[in-house]
Structures are given as C-alpha cells and as structure tokens.
Amino acid sequence: MQSKVLPLEEGKDHVPLNRTNQARPLPLRLLQLFVLFLVLCVAFSVVSLYTIRRFGVDSALMTVKSNFLPCLEEFNISLSEWIKPSVNLMHSMTDEELFWRASFSPQIKNYPFERVPKIAFMFLTKGPLPFAPLWERFLRGHHALFSIYIHSLPSFKPNFSHASVFHGRQIPSQVAEWGRMSICDAEKRLLANALLDINNEWFILLSESCIPLFNFSVIYKYLKESKYSFVGSFDDLGPYGRGRYRDAMAPEVNITEWRKGSQWFEVNRKLAISIVQDTKFYKKFEQFCRPPCYVDEHYFPTMLTIEAGDVIANRSLTWVDWSRGGPHPATFGRRDITEELLARIVNGQNCSYNNGTSSICSLFARKFAPSSLRPLLRLALDVFGY
Ligand SMILES: *[C@@H]1O[C@H](CO)[C@@H](O)[C@H](O)[C@H]1NC(C)=O
Ligand SMILES: *[C@@H]1O[C@H](CO)[C@@H](O)[C@H](O)[C@H]1NC(C)=O
Ligand SMILES: *[C@@H]1O[C@H](CO)[C@@H](O)[C@H](O)[C@H]1NC(C)=O
Ligand SMILES: *[C@@H]1O[C@H](CO)[C@@H](O)[C@H](O)[C@H]1NC(C)=O
Ligand SMILES: *[C@@H]1O[C@H](CO)[C@@H](O)[C@H](O)[C@H]1NC(C)=O
Ligand SMILES: *[C@@H]1O[C@H](CO)[C@@H](O)[C@H](O)[C@H]1NC(C)=O
Ligand SMILES: *[C@@H]1O[C@H](CO)[C@@H](O)[C@H](O)[C@H]1NC(C)=O
C-alpha cells in the first residue's frame, strides 16, 4: 500500500523542488521576453511611421480605429446596432446570397422600437441622373424618411459631391438589357439592397427621366395611407398582351392570369420580399418570356396578380404620355415644358384610391429630357409645391 502511495507523494514533493530549481534561470527568461517586446515595439513604430509617411495620417488612424473600436462595443451591442444598415452600400454578396439575406422578415408583428417607415427611391439608370438637382430640392429636409439606391451600368463612375443625397448610393450593379430578364434581375437587386434596411417600407422604381409631381409630404402621406401597392396590371387580350403568353407557362401561370403593366412600380415591404424570394415564376418567365415577349412588362404584374391580386391597385404611380402613338412614349424637352403641360399632368385625371376617388393619380412622371431641367426647376415651386 505504502509503496503505491509513495511515488504519488514523491511526485508532489518534486513539484516545489523543480520550482526552486528553476528559480535561477527565470530572470533570464524575463529578460528574453523583455527584449522580444522591445523588438516588437520598435518594429511597430517603424511600420507606423512608414504607413503615416506613405499613406498619410488618415489611413493609420483608420486602421487603429478599425482594430480597437469593435473590441469595445463587441460585448454590449444594442438592438439599434444590430439592425443599423451599413453606411457603405457596396458589398461582395452574389445575387443568390443577397436575395437570401434580403428575404428575412420579422415574425413578430410589433417592432420593439419606434420604427419610422421610409420610402426607398430606387433608380434604375444607365449612368448620370440629369434631374438630381430637382430631386435634391424635393428631398430637402426629409432625411429621416427616405433612402436612395442607384443601379447603373457597372462601368459608370458617379460624380456626386459629398453633400449630395445621391453620394455613395450606388449598389453593386450588372449590365441590364431592356426587355430581357437581366432588367428584372437589376430590379430585384435594387429591391434586395433596399430591403437590407429594416425601416424601408415603400419601394419605388424610377428611371433617370422621372420627376416627382408633388412635395414630399403629399407623396409620403399618399403612400402611407394607401391600402394598396401601385403596380400596373391589366389583362390585354391583344397580340401584345395575351399574344405573348406561352402554354408552357402552365400550370404556374394560366392564360387568364397573364397580365401586362408598366415596369415602374411601387410595392410595400411584404410584396418586395415576395418578389425577391420568387423562384417559381422566375424560371417560367426566364425560359418562356423572351423578346418579343418583354419580360419587364409581364413578370411582376402577373406574379403579383396571382400571389397578391387583392393588395395591388393595378395602376402605376408614374405618369407617361402614350398619346403620340408608336412603340415609345413621348419625351419632353425644354420647349415642351409649360405650366399648362405640367398642370395637365398633375390634375388631369381622377382615379380610385382606397375604394374612393382621388384627383391625385400619379406621383411621378416620365419621360423628360435633360434639357428640360432648367424650366422644371423654374416652375417646380408653383406647380409641384417644392
Ligand atoms: C450595456 O449597455 C446598457 C445600456 O447602455 C447598460 O445599462 C448595461 O449596463 C451595459 N452592460 C454592460 C455589461 O456593459
Ligand atoms: C465631377 O464633378 C466636379 C464638380 O461637380 C467637376 O468639377 C468634375 O469635372 C467632375 N468630374 C467628372 C469626371 O465629370
Ligand atoms: C405640400 O403641399 C401641400 C399641398 O399643396 C401643402 O398643403 C403642404 O403645406 C406642402 N408641404 C410642405 C412641407 O411644403
Ligand atoms: C386555365 O383556367 C381555366 C379555368 O379557370 C381552365 O379551364 C383552363 O384549363 C386553364 N388552362 C390551363 C392551360 O391550365
Ligand atoms: C386588381 O386586379 C385584380 C385581378 O386582376 C383584382 O382582384 C383586384 O381587386 C384589383 N385591385 C383593385 C384595387 O381593384
Ligand atoms: C374629377 O372629379 C371632379 C369631381 O368629381 C370633377 O369636377 C372633375 O372634372 C374631374 N376631373 C376629371 C379630369 O375628370
Ligand atoms: C374596398 O372594397 C372591397 C369590396 O367592396 C372591400 O372588400 C375592401 O375591404 C375595401 N377596401 C378598403 C380599403 O376599404
């Protein structure tokens, strides 16, 4: 018994013995550590000095910040930190990753914070925004109530000043061709990027030739109080409507459900998510709706009529003039802009709104040529109220 215990005891005894034995080399180790520390310090100083000389103080400060700030906050993140949208809209997500992320939606109805719903203005453009000065004026003073997203040709380099509401609002973009699925992809990309901000509630697709027809308060109220989303959708029995339907689209799409409508939509958050997450209809349209079936005129109107027909108003909010005939709507240039024209656009119609009638039918109008900017700026206060 004892012989078994003894080695254990011996072992215990050996521990302090070893410690006392090692007591002498310890200062040497400390010294080694100290020297190593010194070397590291010197190396760090040299690298810092070099960075500051080479790249300026800013970048050195930035790296220091980005290294230390998260450490401080990491342990106590508030909800507002979690849901705060990224200031930088550029990201490296693929469409597949982006659409997946954007399809998240809360399952608890009430927000545990005071949510101020915003309008997401989504510009689908080739490049420049000639009416930026008009939009700037329209948006002035309403920063908490809107967000801007721009999808342009990937090669386009925007040139907005830091003070502009359009500065840094470009989203990762790809080439989009009118009438092809790539244009719907671009629209989905705009929706998905805008969905990443939980406060965006109304999503409006606009082009570079669009202008707002009322002041911000009127437009915000109109959207907020509407029971419906504004997606143009009608059953066109002719060759340019049902004529573009293919039987192969059944059973997902029956010809009686086939719709046509303007590309320029307004949808609420719920419908935006249903568009972004759709794969069922997407496959059918991608395969069977090719020119002369212009997919941007059919995909969203048909899909939303099937999935949410009772919550869309079946009309677009964007006024356009087809009265001149031909395949393209009228474009208004400098000489066309008169108070009479604008008054006709603003009050020329009555339409249904929440089961009643309203003299406000369109909130935006197209198509305007860049040359019309100056007369529009001159008349905007009188006829549009901004
Ligand atoms: C986290 O933040 C809250 C609110 O700011 C504060 O009341 C709480 O004491 C903090 N907790 C820790 C562990 O720092
Ligand atoms: C960008 O804008 C500034 C001022 O608005 C102008 O001076 C400059 O020439 C522009 N650059 C390009 C490449 O358009
Ligand atoms: C916006 O226009 C409406 C109607 O013209 C007007 O009653 C309202 O005062 C305007 N709001 C602002 C902030 O200018
Ligand atoms: C479309 O629906 C109608 C009834 O609503 C039905 O009679 C018809 O067979 C359907 N067509 C296709 C292609 O499924
Ligand atoms: C829009 O059209 C659908 C059918 O296509 C219909 O069920 C719905 O009631 C219409 N919406 C409004 C607001 O009239
Ligand atoms: C719209 O309705 C009002 C009142 O019902 C009417 O006075 C007006 O003429 C109508 N406007 C148009 C363009 O039909
Ligand atoms: C509009 O009218 C339809 C049918 O009359 C009704 O079901 C619906 O609830 C009404 N919507 C609103 C917003 O009043």
Record the SSE blueprint.
Layout: H1 2-22, H2 26-73, H3 79-83, H4 95-102, E1 118-124, H5 132-139, E2 146-151, H6 181-195, E3 200-207, E4 211-212, H7 216-225, E5 266-268, H8 269-277, H9 280-288, H10 299-308, E6 318-319, H11 339-347, E7 351-353, E8 356-358, E9 364-365, H12 373-383
Parallel strand pairs: 1-2, 1-3, 6-9
Antiparallel strand pairs: 3-5, 4-9, 7-8
Helix pairs in contact: 4-6, 6-8
The site of one 2-acetamido-2-deoxy-beta-D-glucopyranose has 4 residues, from loops.
Helical percentage: 40-55%
Instruction: Tell me the number of strands.
Output: 9
Distinct ligands? 2-acetamido-2-deoxy-beta-D-glucopyranose
CATH topology of the domain at 82-317: Spore Coat Polysaccharide Biosynthesis Protein SpsA, Chain A
**Total helical elements:** 12
In sequence order, what are the helices and strands, one letter per element?
A: HHHHEHEHEEHEHHHEHEEEH
- Cα end-to-end separation: 99 Å
Please state the CA-atom Rg, rounded to the nearest Å.
Answer: 31 Å
Poorly predicted runs: 1-25, 56-68
GO cellular component, one term: membrane
GO molecular function: glycosyltransferase activity
Organism: Cucumis sativus (Cucumber)
Protein name: Core-2/I-branching beta-1,6-N-acetylglucosaminyltransferase family protein
Describe, in short, the structure shown.
The chain is α/β, with parallel strands linked by helices. The protein has helices at residues 2-22, 26-73, 79-83, 95-102, 132-139, 181-195, 216-225, 269-277, 280-288, 299-308, 339-347, 373-383, and strands at residues 118-124, 146-151, 200-207, 211-212, 266-268, 318-319, 351-353, 356-358, 364-365. The chain has a domain at 82-317: Alpha-Beta Complex (Spore Coat Polysaccharide Biosynthesis Protein SpsA, Chain A), CATH 3.90.550.
